[in-house]
Design brief:
0% of the residues lie in helices and 66% in strands. A hairpin with a 2-residue loop joins strand 5 and strand 6. It is mostly beta strands. It has one domain. The protein is elongated and about 65 Å long. The strands form three sheets. A four-stranded antiparallel sheet has the order 2-1-5-6, with no helix packed on it. A four-stranded antiparallel sheet has the order 3-10-7-4, with no helix packed on it.
């Protein structure tokens, strides 16, 4: 069984027991959160697709880590002008462990 959920402005394919990284959520470590924006649910042979969301389907997850990603380098340059600028960026993330996918029917 898997589901496609929406968190922030991104979509993720999740299954039970999986760990995913999403953009930073306001939650403490070991908090259980409910992801109720489910776009698709697949269970063996059946496939349910929402327009745009499915009602009655919830994905329960636990926060396992609040962290920051690797540093990336942003470099700007204009040739023959003597202009160059280097800047670093680290994206905040929340790691979630998917506990259960439940459909109430």
């Amino acid at each position: 069984m898997y589901a496609i959920i929406k968190s922030g402005s991104r979509q993720y394919r999740v299954a039970e027991g999986q760990t995913i990284r999403v953009n930073r959520l306001q939650a403490e470590l070991n908090d259980e959160i409910l992801l109720d924006q489910v776009l698709l649910l697949a269970d063996g042979e059946t496939l349910k697709c929402g327009r745009p969301l499915l009602s009655g389907v919830d994905v329960k997850a636990r926060v396992v880590l609040q962290g920051r990603g690797k540093k990336i380098l942003v470099f700007k340059k204009k040739r023959r002008q003597g202009y160059h600028k280097a800047q670093g960026h680290r994206q905040d993330f929340t790691a979630l462990r998917i506990l259960s996918i439940k459909a109430s029917e």
